[in-house]
Amino acid sequence: MNSWVKNSVPAELSPAAVVVALERDLLLTSLSRPTGSAAPISPHAVPSKAGPAIRAAAEVITLVRRGEYLGALSSPQARALLCGPDAGAGADLKPGPLSDAQSAAAAADAYNTIATNVALARDAAAVAGGVEPAAHALLALAVGVASLNAFQQVNVTGPGLANAPQCPFPSVIAQSTESETDARWNRFALTELSVDGEDLVGRCRLPQYLLLARILLPDRLVKDVETLVPEDVTGAQLQDARAAAAKRSAKDSKDDGRVRLWSEPVGIPMENSQQTAGDSAGDGSTGSTAGDVSCSPTPPSLAWWSARQVLAHQRLLSGRSPTLRRNALGLHALSLLNFAPDNKPARVFGATTASPFQDNKATNAASVSNPTQTLLASMSLLEASLMEHEYGHVDSARALLEFACSALGVRLELVGKMGFRTVHQQDAKAQMVLEVSCDGLHVTKRADQSEAASDDETDDEPLLDDASAAGVSKPEKSAAMARIATELQGLSVDGSQVLTTPRLGNVNEMTDVRNENFITLPAAAQALVLASAVTVRKSQSDDGTRSWAIAPYHEIVQNQVRSRPVLRAAAAVFSSRHERERARTRERSLLLLEDLVRGLDLPAPSPQARARYAYSVWFPPSSALRKELGESLIGLGMVGPALELFEEIELWDSLVVCLSLLGKKQQAADVVRRRLAVDPLDAKLWCALGDALDDENHYLKALEVSGNKSARALRSLARGAVAREDWVVAAQRWQEAMQLNPLFPEGWFSCGYALLKAKREDEALSAFTRCTQIDCENGQAWNNVAALNIRKNRFPQAHVALREAVKQIRGSWQTWENLAMVSCKVGHFQQSARALLTVLDLTDGTQLHLPTLASLVERCVEARDGVATWLGVEDTNDAATRLAEEKRKKALGQIAELAEDESSDDESETWDGVGGGTGAADAGDAAADMLGAFFSDSEEEDDGENDDGKNVSDTTGNSVSDTAETAVTAHDKAKASQEIAGQVLAREVVRLESSVEDVFKRALGGGSSGERPVTESSEIWRLVAEFRTARSEWTVASEARLKRVRALDGTKWRKDQQCFVEYTDASLEMCRGSVRAATASRSDDDENTSSPAEIKRNVSQARMHLRGLIKVGEAMEWGVAMTEVFAELEKCAEEVAAAEAGLEGEEGTR
């Protein structure tokens, strides 16, 4: 079949198959139609036996395909659905002038009536039976999609709809003449769309369309979402929601052994002579007569379209909404269950979606060759990845994106190639280039075009000559954009002489070599490339090189011969941000961004062309794009046009900040007051006025007009309390704000800080823990969690938190020092030594935690003495941590319980002090409960059990002689394993000693930026002496003791008693060390022992040193006050004299 023949008549389809094919056509309006797939079904091609309900759905879907969204909403079919069979009854929905409260009540009644009418129509279709329920569900889906697409066209993709009615109700479009009433209904819609205390940012046009889309799309699945995702979404994960959806699907499914359509009527099997929708879609599925199947009246794509509405709603809000997060998780779980179970293509259109708990190998094998199924699976995973990015779950988003690329056969690889970056560059330099290959969709050549993507391009062509038929209006006149155009007249695009993309090769010739260096990619593959750019941007810190890491991704899209408008625009946004960071290309970046904003209002490309992949790519709303343009203008000193643009798009916060920086706070307040005169019930304006005048009364007014639902006002009040150090009030305000919207990590951190200052440590620990759950990259929050656990002597929990903290704030020596201390407490000595080295490197050798170093030296001494109980523990714990981390990463992007089936025993095992303990119910244990998996050591235990079982199975069934030989062999193996274990433990001691020695070298080797205190240097030398003595390095140990005494010699020990005691202690240790060295020289011939003459000289020096020390004490008359000290000195002097006498006797004997 010729895939780009528009009105080809399909074979005779059953009514159920027509419904499925129409749903497929509706879904593909937002994606592409791969080569070889069936042509869309036009209304005149619908079989006569399909019935009026299916024909009505076909009419609306055809209008949506053409981009005539307003026409779809005003069609008789939509009017009958939204306003009931008697459409004229809706004429009273908008009565005469009313007050604000009355208008809000009338709008609420109108939208409640719509929901009621849709439910009544659903019940009527269920009574009629047959395919009527499926046809009704499809019609409601199509009308919801039309409303959503119209909103997206006006606020995201363009072009504008200047003449569009403010109210989407078809029955009142002609009566929508009162601008005041329209404004009040829009205000009601904006209020309804403000979720969890978060308002819509900037100017939002046609908000009632988004509200209607919410009623017709996600609200129909709200009960399903509630069963899949818990109400508290702080720790909710997509893999858990997918597992719940898969379980429910396996429980509810009734597998009768045949392929069925979701739209099939109850009790009526498919006829053998009828072609299924899967055949028309190229699925290769066939009908069957085996058994009756109950009907599922919910279209599989309803969850997908609903998830798109939720994400579009979230992108307009000022902050993340937990309500929308819950909806997004549940809806994407349902969508992936339908289109990508087990992250592989599913036979959606024409076949039952196989549950991940069932054997679906045959299903997957049959669907791999179908490009439509492959495309849908990949794009559903891609949009789930974008949703995870929206809520800051980068690891999950990366895993989902990898599965999306795998489903479509897309492979990405960054390589280096020689090329040129500037026009006049003489020598080729290495350039970072992205190589992409795509096996799932094929690139075709056509007669009228040299090359094209695999999409059905003719499906985007306008079906009517008059562009106004699709509702496209002339661009709105913008005074701000006109002034910006005037300001930018002198700028040049090519003035920088820097190429937009590298010219590859060894010769810098002014020729177009794009086709030689860049492969032509399908639009779906381009969307995956841009999503990979988003992942790189979200996963790397902005250290000046991030934009260069992103550049290869958007450059390959910019170099495509053919690309969808929204894909090219998204690549242009990335390119603009990249060039903004370079001084030579900053002007070109501004011109590119201005061209993008201006292009949103142009009539070409057509709306249906812009709708392709608009939901499958990251592209900011028009208000956010204009805000970015304004910030770029400010960066180049064009403040006036930026202020005018901010006021036009109603970005009051940006306007106030900009005027405040210019010292024009009063002007900012005047601008906001003028707007308040028009809309006095806008909480955002009252908050902006409070920012301009620094008056908390305006924040209180914002709370009043919002019904205490403005999280923005509560945060401003909390920050004001922090500024005046009223910690009790600040903690209260932050807690109130977090109750409204708990998905605000900065708020949890500030709340925890205020609670900590208010002496409420348990609540502060809980707040910091919530912050780490939402934003795992907040190193300060992890550090505070650790600090509070240290105060409570919960060192295992603190260790986990500190390990996460140093990943994010690697330049904080205080955090590394805390990690060194806590690691030593929990038995991770090697890690503790490495952390001490990091502290010394970060502080140039000036900071060293001596108690931790002393503890490490003690462990080394214990190992040398053979009494160490810590050997092997650290390696075991580290191995368990690595295994747990690998399992966590492996589970990302998959179905949780399927990934955990292999290690279900781990759930009942916990490490000492983490989870399952007596303090598990305490609020302060939240961090431990969240991170308990890091300490699971069950894998090693399982391995041991498996090994034992293997030995039993190997020896079972042998003869008697074989058994004896096996016993001997087993004994030899056990002995060998013990020797190997001893070698491993010895290596562990050697590694620790080597690390401790490195710490000593770094601390005493010089090169520090400051002078170390004398007492600290003395303590370090004491530890060196103890460490060297344990290793039987007597000479080095004696030198260390001598250097300790010399270090203390600079103190006031001759005049101060405390200094005298410290000096005496060091002297006694030095002298007794000389005695021990002398004794050791007589007992062995160790190579570390000094010569007899040197030993005798050291003992004599010790005797003289003690005599001088005693004389100083007697001269200061400290004998009475320090009796014990002088007794020790006399005792040590006797020991030294005896040792000296023994050495003289040996010398006389020789």
Q: How would you describe this structure to a colleague?
A:
- With 1150 residues, this protein is mostly helical.
- 61% of the residues lie in helices and 3% in strands.
- It has a three-stranded antiparallel sheet with strand order 2-1-3.
- Strand 1 and strand 2 form a beta hairpin.
- Helix 37 (829-842) runs parallel beside helix 43.
- The radius of gyration is 38 Å and the shape is elongated.
- The protein starts with 14 loop residues before the first helix and ends with a helix.
- The N terminus is likely disordered.
* Number of separate strands: 3
Global Rg: 38 Å
Structural class: mainly alpha
**Can you give the helix content as a percent range?**
55-70%
- With strands numbered from the N-terminus, the spatial order across the biggest sheet is 2-1-3
Mean pLDDT: 78
- Main sheet properties: 3 strands, antiparallel
Shape field: elongated
Percentage beta strand: under 5%
Please give the count of helices: 48
Rounded to the nearest angstrom, the distance between the terminal CA atoms is 112 Å
Query: Low-confidence segments, ≥5 residues, pLDDT <50?
Result: 1-10, 88-95, 171-177, 267-296, 350-368, 449-454, 460-469, 511-517, 898-968, 973-984
Briefly summarize what is shown.
The relative contact order is 0.06. This protein is mainly alpha-helical and 1150 residues long.
Task: Provide tags for this entry.
3 strands; elongated; 1150 residues; mainly alpha; three-stranded antiparallel sheet; 3% strand; disordered N terminus
